[in-house]
Write a structure and sequence with these properties.
Layout (H helix, E strand, L loop, with lengths): L1 H26 L3 E7 L5 H15 L3 E8 L10 H13 L3 E5 H6 L12 E3 L2 H10 L3 E4 L1
Parallel strand pairs: 1-2, 1-5, 2-3, 3-4
Amino acid sequence: MKKLILGVFLLTLAFSNALIAQTSTHEHHSHNYVVLTKKIPQLQPIILTAEALAEEDGESFGDFQAIICGKTVQELTDKEMMKSFIEKAEEAHVKIVVCGFSLKKFKVNKEDIPEELEVVDNGILHDFQLQKKGYLSIEL
């Protein structure tokens, strides 16, 4: 009888520790965001949004990515124009990602865009992959 009571007690203790660990993990869940855009000037409000969410989320603010797709990738070669966007994005912890498929379609050489920009093979696929990981997503 003592072994049964001790066994039930240990089982209850293990179960409650598992619940506490699960709750603790849930409390530290970070909020991740991704925005798909076809217009470079939209980077300004995207960055402002990231700053507001970072303030609102506090320690829960995670990753924030802005994916640029479409014909607008041709404008990425204007490194002077992109400089201020890149600086503001870095300050706001926003990663600017470029669709490699769009670069190929509109004949933009990867070497002609600022090196701070990350190029992925397919921006739309990248967006979906992030959504599958739980990122909150919006397309502009």
